[in-house]
C-alpha cells in the first residue's frame, strides 16, 4: 500500500514540474518537439532512478554533514554515463539537447528527491519514488512538447497533421514555451477547482 | 570587435533567462520583489565571473592535458560549490556591507544552473581565457537585466485585476513569454 502511494505521488499530487515548480529549465528548453521531450525525459528518468537507488543503499554509511557533496558525486557519475552513452548512440538527439544533458546534474528534482526521500527510505520505496517522479516529469514535458509541436509546425512526433504554413512558428520559439506552460497551469487550476 | 560581439550576443541576443531558458528556478523564485532581484543579480555577477575563470583554468590546465575530460561534470560542480563557500567566508570577513546585501542568495547559487552552464558553454564554444571572461560577464549582466525588469512587472501584477485561474504562476509565465518575445527582436543585431 505504501509502495503504491510512493509510486503514485510523483505522477499527479506532487508532480515535480506543474505542482512543485522544480526542474523547469529543461522542461522549457527542450520541449520544442515531442521527440526531444521524450529523449530528455528518458535521460532524467535514468539518472533519477539510479541515483535514488544508490543513495538509498548507502544512506546508513553516509555521515550527515557531508551528505550533499556525496549525493552530488553519485548524481554526476550517472550524468556522465548518460552523457557519453547518448553522445555515442544518439548523436542527433545529443546535438539537439546540447548543454542540457550535462546540466541534469543541477536539476533540482534529482537532488531534491535524494535529500527528501531516498536518504530516509528503503531501497525499493526509493526506486518506486524515482519511477513515479520520472513519469510525472515525462508527462509534463511530453504534453508541453506535443502542444508546441502541433501548434508550431503542425505535427506530432514528426507526423505531419496539417500544412506547416497554417502553424504559428512562435510556438516553437522561446516565447511559445512560456506561453504553453502558463496556459497549462491555468487549465490545471481550473480543473482542480471543479473536481474539489 | 570580436569581444564586443560576444558580450552583446550573451547580453541580449542569447539572453540566458529569456532565450536560453537557464536558471529559471531563481527567475521565478526571487523576482517577486525588486530588492531580492537586485540582491540575487549582484550575487550572480560576482560568482559567475569568478567560477567561470576558475573552471576554465581547471579544464585547460588540469583536465585537458591528462585526458580527464570525462570528469568535467563532477569537477566543475564541486569547484563551484567550494568556491561559493570560500566567497561567502571572504565577503563576511572583508566586505561586510556587500555580504549583507547578498548574504542569503550566495548559498542558493550553488544550485543555479546558469553558473554551471556558462562554465560548460565557454568550453563548448572553444573560447580563449579573455573571451570566456567577457562571455560570462555578458551572461551575468543579461541575467540581471532580465530579472530586474521582470521584478518591476511582477510588483505591478500583484495589484492588477487578473482572471482567477491565471493568478500567481500562470500569469508570471505569460508575462515572461511577452518579455521573451521582445528579446527575440534583438536577433540579427551586430551581424550575429
From TrEMBL, chain A:
Pfam families: Rnf-Nqr (PF02508). Its main location: membrane. GO terms for cellular component: endomembrane system; plasma membrane. The chain crosses the membrane at residues 34-56, 68-86, 92-111, 123-146, 166-188. GO terms for biological process: electron transport chain. Its EC number is 7.-.-.-. The keyword Metal-binding does not apply. Keywords: Cell membrane, Electron transport, Membrane, Translocase, Transmembrane, Transmembrane helix, Transport. It is a multi-pass membrane protein. It is an enzyme of class 7 (translocase). Belongs to the NqrDE/RnfAE family. Part of a membrane-bound complex that couples electron transfer with translocation of ions across the membrane. NCBIfam families: PRK12405.1, rnfE. This is Ion-translocating oxidoreductase complex subunit E. It comes from candidate division WOR-1 bacterium RIFCSPLOWO2_02_FULL_46_20.
UniProtKB/TrEMBL annotation, chain B:
It is a multi-pass membrane protein. Keywords: Cell membrane, Electron transport, Membrane, Translocase, Transmembrane, Transmembrane helix, Transport. The chain crosses the membrane at residues 6-30, 42-62, 74-91, 103-123, 129-153, 165-186. Signal peptide: none annotated. Its EC number is 7.-.-.-. It holds the Pfam family Rnf-Nqr. It comes from the Bacteria. The keyword Transmembrane helix applies. One of its GO terms (cellular component) is plasma membrane. It is found in: Cell membrane; Endomembrane system. The keyword Cell membrane applies. GO terms for biological process: electron transport chain. The complex is composed of six subunits: RnfA, RnfB, RnfC, RnfD, RnfE and RnfG. Belongs to the NqrDE/RnfAE family. HAMAP family: RsxA_RnfA (MF_00459). Part of a membrane-bound complex that couples electron transfer with translocation of ions across the membrane. This is Ion-translocating oxidoreductase complex subunit A. It comes from candidate division WOR-1 bacterium RIFCSPLOWO2_02_FULL_46_20.
